[in-house]
Amino acid sequence: MLSLLRRITQEVTAAQSLQAALDIIVRRVRRAMRSEVCSIYLVDPNTQDYILMATRGLNADAAGKLSLKSDEGLVSLVGRRAEPVNLEDAHIHPAFHYLSGTGEERYKSFLGVPIIHHRQVLGVLVVQHEERRRFDEGEEAFLITLSAQLAGVIAHAEATGAMMSLTPNTPPPGSDFRYKGIAGSSGVAIGKAVVIFPPADLDVIPDRIPQSTESEIEDFYQALEAVRSDIKKVSSRLSQHISSDEKALFDVYLKILDDNSLAAEIVSKIEEGNWAPGALRQVIKLHISFFEQMEDPYLRERASDIRDLGRRILSHLQEKTPSITEDLTEPVILVSEELTASMLGEFPLEKVKGLVSVMGSSSSHVAILARAMGIPTVMGAVDLPYSKLDKIDMIVDGYSGQIFTYPSEAIIDSYQQIVDEERQLESEYEQLKDLPCETLDGQRIGLYVNTGLLADIHRSLDRGAEGVGLYRTEVPFMIRDRFPTEAEQEQIYRQQLEGFAPAPVTIRTLDVGGDKALPYFPINEENPFLGWRGIRVTLDHLEIFMAQIRAMIKASAGLHNLKIMLPMISNVAEVEEALALIRRAYAEVKEEGYDVVMPLVGVMIEVPSAVYQAKELAGMVDFMSVGSNDLTQYLLAVDRNNSRVANLYHTFHPAVLRALADIVERTKGEGVKLSVCGEMAGDPLGAILIMAMGYDTLSMSSTSLPKVKAVLRKLTMEQAQDMLRQVLPLVHSDAVRQTMMKLAREAGVERLIRPSKTAALQ
C-alpha cells in the first residue's frame, strides 16, 4: 500500500496541470480500489459550491460543468462534517441528491472523504459501486491516507496556478493576484521581481523568457558537450581502478547524454519560450518522475542518474550565465524559495526594494537583517509560484504579509499612497533624532540597537541610538573560513566600542548552533534548537571562550564601556562557571598592563528555565536581557524558521507576555537592570507593553528605533500601563494585537505605527 501511495503521489506531483493531476488521481484510485466510479469535487472559493472536476465512471462530459450547492447532497455533507461518509445505499440517505447528467443513478454504495489542507476543506474524493455494499475499513483507510497525501499538492496547484501550462512569465488572465505570507519587515515595495537561486539546484530554477533563443540553444549544446567531456575524462582516469561493471555506469551516462530525444525535448522547451536552465529543469524533472514511477528497482534508481546529469549540465550553463547584479539598472524585489543572508549580501543594497521568501518566518535571520536595513519583506509565502514570477510586476506589503503579482493600476495607486505616507513619517522621525525617548509624563526608557556589522555604527548613531544592547559576535565568525584570532577579534570589538563610546556596548559571547552554523565548525544534530548551542558550546571549548573574552576586555582599554552578555543560559551553574572564567581573563589582561576595568556581565533570558530562575540569576549578574525571539520559540514549541508552523509563532501570545511580566516581578529588589533585545522590542506595540511592564531598556534594529521613539513620546506611562492591564487577561494572540491597535488608534498613535491606508487594503 505504501509503495502504491508513493507512486500515485509522485505521478500527481509531476503533472503539468491541475486538471491532469486530478485525472491521474481518479484513474489511479479507481484502479487501485477496483471501484466502478471515482470522482473529485473541488470547492469553488467564491460560491463554496462543489464542482465535479474529474471522474472515471460517471459521464466524463459533466466534469467542470456540474456542481452541488454547499448544502446539497452527500458530497457537501462530507465537506461540512470534514470527515468520511461511508454508505451501503446512498439513495436512501436523507442528504442524497441526484446530480442530473452524471449517470450516477445506478450506483448505490458511496464512500466520500474530505480533502483538507491547513484546516480548510478543498474538496471531496468519492468512490462508488453499483452493488449495495459498505466499503470496508481498509478501503476507507486507504482513501483517507491518499487524500491527506494529495491535499497539499492540490492546495498548492489551486492557490498558485503552478500546474497551469502557461508560457513562462505570461500573465494569467486577470490581475491583482494576492498571496499571503508572514510580515517580515514593515513597509511597501513596488517594482519588478527578480528570482534568485543557489547554484546547481534544479528544483529552484525559475522560468525566464530568453533574450535570444538561438544563443540559449547554443549554450545548452556547449554545456551538454562539456558534461560528455567531463564524464569521459573521469571514466578514463578511473578505468584502471574500477571493474567493468562499475565502469558501465559512465557508459550509461554517456548514452543518456547522447540520446537525441532528451536534447531535442530541452531544445523544444527553449523554442517554446523558456531559457536553457528552465527548459532543462522542466525536462529533467519530467524524466525523473517517469523513472521514479517504475516498478523495477534498477530502473527506479536511474532517476538519481538523471538528476545528477541535470545538475552537471546546469552547472556548466550557470558558468555562462551573467550575474543577475550585472543586469540590474533599477531597484528590484528579490524573490527566492529560501532567501538567505549570503544571497542578500551579493546585491548592492541600493538596488533592493523588497524581499520575498517562500520559506522562513518573521524571526528568520534574513528577516531580522531586512528589518535592520529597512527593506519591506514577506516570509513564508508557501503558495507563491515563485518560479513563474521572474521580471514581473509585484507589490510587497510588509505590514500585512501580502504579495500582489500583476497588480492593476488601481492597486498600485493605493500602495503608492502608502509609500508617500511612509516618506512623510520618516521626515517626522528625523526631527526626533536628538531627543530622548521620554513619555509625556517624563518617564525615561533607553533605546539601544542590535548590531553585528561595522556599517551599523553610523546608521545607528544617525537614528539616535543610546548604545548597543546586543552586538552579535557570530557575524565576524561566520564570514571567515576559520576561527578569528584573539588579535583579530580585539580589532573588531574595538571598532564597535570606539564607534559608540562613551555609550555602553553589550557584546554577546559566541552564539552558534541551532540555525546559526559555522562552515568550519559543523554541528550536526537531529534537533539543533534543543542541542549544543550558545554558552554550551563555548564552555565546552575554553580555548574559544577565553580568547573571545580576553579580546573583548583588551578592546575596552581606556574606553570602559564594555558589557558582556552570556547567551542560552539554562541554569545557575553555567553562570558560575562563566563568571569565574571572565574574572580570570580580566586578571590576565590586567597583568599584561592594559588599562581596563572589570566589565558588567549579564545573561540572556531566552529559555523557560531561566524565566523561573530569574531571581537567582539576578543575584549573580549586573543586568539581564530577554531574547524574545528564542523565548517565544521555546515557550510555544514552534521552530521560528519553519514556515509550516510559522502561523503559530506569536510574540503577542499571552504566555509570552506573562513570562515577560513574570521576569520583572521575580527580579524586583535585586538591583538588576532589565532589557528586551528581541524583535518584539522593535515593534511599537510590543515596546509599549514592555515599557509598561517596567523594563529599563529596549534594544532593536536601527530602522525600528525612530518609529518606536515617536510612539512612546506620544504616550504617558499611565496610558501604557492601562493598555497592559487590558491585554494581559486576554487568551488569544490575535485579540492582543487587535486590542493594542484599537488602543493605539484611540491614543492617536496608530498612524505612527503604520500608514493609515494599510488598514483599508487588508
TrEMBL record:
Record keyword Transferase present: yes
EC code(s) of this entry: 2.7.3.9
Catalytic reaction equation(s): L-histidyl-[protein] + phosphoenolpyruvate = N(pros)-phospho-L-histidyl-[protein] + pyruvate
Subcellular location: Cytoplasm
Keyword Cytoplasm carried by entry: yes
Residue intervals of the GAF domain: 17-164
Gene Ontology annotations for the cellular component aspect, listed alphabetically: cytoplasm
Transmembrane segments: none
Annotated keywords: Cytoplasm, Kinase, Magnesium, Metal-binding, Phosphotransferase system, Sugar transport, Transferase, Transport
One Gene Ontology biological process: phosphoenolpyruvate-dependent sugar phosphotransferase system
Gene3D superfamilies registered for this protein in UniProt: 3.30.450.40, Phosphoenolpyruvate-binding domains (3.20.20.60), Phosphohistidine domain (3.50.30.10), PtsI, HPr-binding domain (1.10.274.10)
PROSITE patterns: PEP_ENZYMES_2
MF annotations from Gene Ontology: kinase activity; metal ion binding; phosphoenolpyruvate-protein phosphotransferase activity
Top-level taxon of the source organism: Bacteria
Family, similarity comment: Belongs to the PEP-utilizing enzyme family.
Protein's name in the database: phosphoenolpyruvate--protein phosphotransferase
Naturally occurring in which organism (per UniProt): Marinomonas communis
